[in-house]
Write a structure and sequence with these properties.
Elements lengths: L22 E3 L10 E3 L5 E3 L12 E3 L10 E8 L4 E8 L2 E4 L2 E5 L4 E10 L7
Length: 125
């Protein structure tokens, strides 16, 4: 069963990880119980758009955009046994001026350390 809550704005945010991917599993709130925030350190998804979407092979780390499209929040370092991890942010760049629209790169500029997380604490999604 796919319990992933990560992905990209290109593939959606329920992308299945085909291998045994490190993750943090939610227990609260009840509607999220059992959902998995999979690390983007080992799991990449399709991203970007237009000509610039081919940068970095068209791939970006799996994550979410809880604060809007300016950057992507990614679970980066994970200690599954301890139920903790570190979030990082990734940026992209877009070229849209006048009549030129080259699109946007995938979110691949990073990782920039953001904040630590624990399975039993609040995590913005």
């Amino acid at each position: 069963m796919n319990r992933s809550i990560v992905g990209s704005d290109k593939e959606g945010f329920n992308v299945y990880c085909p291998q045994n991917c490190p993750h943090i599993e939610f227990s609260q709130p009840s509607w999220l119980a059992g959902s998995q925030w999979i690390t983007g350190n080992t799991f990449e998804v399709k991203g970007g758009k237009g000509i610039l979407g081919t940068v970095n092979g068209g791939k970006e780390p799996a994550g979410r955009h809880p604060f809007g499209a300016s950057f992507k929040v990614v679970l980066w370092d994970v200690d599954e046994a301890g139920g903790r991890g570190d979030m990082a942010i990734f940026f992209r760049f877009c070229v849209k001026k006048n009549f030129v629209n080259l699109g946007c790169t995938p979110y691949f500029i990073g990782p920039i350390p953001f904040f630590p997380v624990h399975e039993k604490t609040w995590i913005p999604i």
